[in-house]
Design brief:
The protein is built from 25 helices and 20 strands. By secondary structure, the chain is α/β, with parallel strands linked by helices. The strands form 6 sheets. It has a 5-stranded antiparallel β-sheet with strand order 4-3-7-6-5, sandwiched between helices. It has a 5-stranded parallel β-sheet with strand order 13-14-17-12-18. It has a 4-stranded antiparallel β-sheet with strand order 9-8-11-10.
Length: 684
Amino acid sequence: MNQRPRKPGRSEFSDVKVQTGTGKGSSKFNYDERNVMTAWESFLTGGRPQDYSNVRTLVQDSWNRCKSLGIDARGVGAPLRNDQDYLHELHQDNHDLLTAAADSLAMLKHLLDNTSAMIILTDRDGVILESFGDSRTIEAGRDIHLEVGGGWNESTAGTNGIGTALRTGKPVLIHAAEHYCQDVKAWTCAAAPIFEPFDGSIVGVVDLSGPTEIFQRHNMTVPVIAARQIEQILHQRGSDERMQLMEACFNSAPTINDEDGLVVLDRHGRVVCHKNAPGIMLEGKVERLMRTGDSLFSPKSDMTEADIAASLPEEFTPHKIQRLQVDGKVRGTVLVFENKRRSPTMPLGTVTSNSRHEDVRGPTILGESTNFRRVLDMVRRVAAGRGSVLIEGETGVGKELVGRLFHAYTARTREDPFVTVNCGAITKELIGGELFGHVPGAFTGALREGKKGKFEQAHGGVLCLDEIGEMPLDVQPFLLRALEDRVIYRLGDNKARPVDVRLVAQTNRNLLKEVEAGTFRKDLYYRIGAIKISIPPLRDRGDDIFILLDHFNETFAGELDRNPLEFTDAAREALSHYPWPGNVRELRNLVESLHLTLSQRTVTVADIIASGIYVSGTDGLNEDDRNATSAGEAHDLDEMQRRVIKKAILDNNGNLTLAARQIGIARSTLYRKMEQFSIHRSYG
């Protein structure tokens, strides 16, 4: 027969020893209720620490926190608030969690019938949202407010499974006399926190509670398994929604320019992704928000664009705020930052310039070195044909800018489109619809009115596929067919749509090796690679480094309304010896950083080193660096790259995304360089 939880002193565990767990903070020990009760009484009356040394460290720590907070150990249970308005708002605020937990809780409800146990779901603050299980146990729980609306945070209810799991961020079992408050000592509870997959924060707790006689060591497995199931559902739903937000953002392209900076936020105000974040300082802020999962603003369902603008931090001043809808409901926001730093034809993050040599419309490029001028001449020649072009080069050399120059030579009118697609920035599930478009209802999240793909948008102009080596293998046959037949089919449609586009493919990979590895189709490679243009890295362009350095220096000085920086001769010499693994983009970022961070206008070698650039063969190096560059090693580019990569990984505590950003290269390039130089992520 089911029984109500009993008051302390009547538990049938009073003379029984049991094991309650293993591991740090809950190490294996024999539970003796008399000893724990005696220790509790001694603790409350200021006894000696040795009087309760047989109490688990986890429990001792919790008791100490409770005592310091002044919690009444003789009190009754937890605070309760159960008015209907509060409960309605509570459930509204936790709609996602309740929906994700519904199936798991329903299954447990069935399993817990006639077991004297109850299963509980709380929010991130320990307030009970739902409870299911044995009816008599649920009724008994009302005596201590173990019911919907009860607040079981450790700071209000003392040591208990729910509150202590929230406090420690770990699964916790609190049994009988281990509870801090007297009237809860007739209970045993096992609780596991639920983590939000997006940012790792705790969003709730699953708890198994009941009278002490239900205690079993494996009680812990029930809430742990349930919590993991809920997390998986939250992860899947969150991923689906973020994909839909990205799709909604892509569909806003007619009102957003390619050069604009974008920050996409979900409905909680958290950064989902960003593109062309305007300026180093703001970009760093966005990256930190993505890492921590912090909200940019506290969202409310009825917020307008004006409300959002007013609630944003001061440094975020978008020139446009656009709400993103999914299935007819507002599910996110995109902040649009007007790109005032570059000309309308200049994409953010690529090499910039206005050449003194070219007279065609569109972007042109600074550079006097022979091998670089040879590239520009080749672009002019191949533009006269009709075939596809493959542009190869390391990250940051300016592949897209060369692609735009190619478009300028081929364009018949100023209206001929130039459409870019970053194959590495679009998920496998979305890239087909992005390239070829879709008809209404073609897939989950598809627009009701359908959508043109990038091929149709580029009709009559140039389609630039950046990072084509990242294109999923199963999408490649459709691209090959579109190039050969000059027709495309929208997803979900059998209607052929003629397209007239010149394809410019870009890659920092060796596609021939990708073909040999089976990750890139041979027929597609020969279709797009008949004409190849290889852009030399900055380190092979001689004095072009100084031409670009002076250009960026003057550009940022003008934008910031200040005098240009003055580089000492030693500093310029140091820059000429640096291998520039991030190429022109890295040089540009360095100059911008120096303009923003230096208080003086003269740049020394020490300033360059402080910016994360390793230099050699010049003054300003420490003794270890001087020794390392002896015997001609100053000009060993591989060794210099290896040291730069090691430093970046060390500076960013092994975070490869941040390390790649510091260097100015793609993360995929960083991986290959690490493998090439046998560098391990744990270095340093």
